[in-house]
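User: C-alpha cells for this one?
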Amino acid sequence: MLRAATAAGVRRVVLTSAANTASPSSYATEGVTDETLWTDPDDPSLIPYRRSKTLAERAAWDFMAGHGGSTELTTVLPGAVFGPVLTPDTSGSVGIVARMLSGAMRGVPRIGLEIVDVRDLVDVHLRAMTSPHAAGERFLATGDFTWMAEMARTLRDGLGAEGRRVSTRQVPDFAVRLAARFREPSLREITPSLGRRNRHSTDKARKVLGWQPRPAAETVLDCARSLLAHGAV
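Assistant:
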C-alpha cells in the first residue's frame, strides 16, 4: 500500500495501528505511557496480536524512512473500539457487548479497556489527515479506562429490561487462568491483561489535533442499542 501511495505521489497516508504498539511488555506495569514508547516485539511473553501490530507499524515507518519522497506518514493508535454498528456482525470488540447482552458472558474478568468510540476514531483520522502538524507523528487514540465490570453495570443500569441478562458478577483471576489452561484455550491471550494497570495518554492528540473523545459510558450504551436495533443479540 505504501509503495503504491508513494508511487502515485499521495500527499499523506494515515495508518491505523494499535495502542498496544506503545505499551510496556507487561500490562501490569504501573503508570501512563505515550507515543514515545515502542512495545518490544522481541519479548517472548507478547501475544501474537501485539507482536504483529508492532512489527507492522515499525515496517511502515522503516519503509517511509528509506523512501525519500514527498509522501508523509501519520499513524493512529486506537484503544478498544466500540460504538454504533452498521451491520449485525459482532466480530471484534463489539462482540464483548453482544455476549454481555445475550447472557453468554456469565461473569466478567478483571480486565480494563481504554474504550474509544468508532465515531471519535473516524474524527481523529480525519484530523490526522488534514492537520499540517500531524505529518511524521504517532497519535494515541484511546478513551476512558473502564473495567469490564463497569461496562456491565452501565449496560444493566442504562438499558432497563433489555439489559436484564447482563451479568455483573466478577470472575476471580485464578478462575480465568484455570479455565484458560484446562477448558478454554482461547482465554490464554487475555490472561496477561488481568488486573491491567498501564494506561495511555492522549494529550498529544488533544493538543495537536484538538481531538475530544466522548465518555466511555455513552459509547458502550450506543453500541448496545445499535446491536439491539440490528437484531445482533
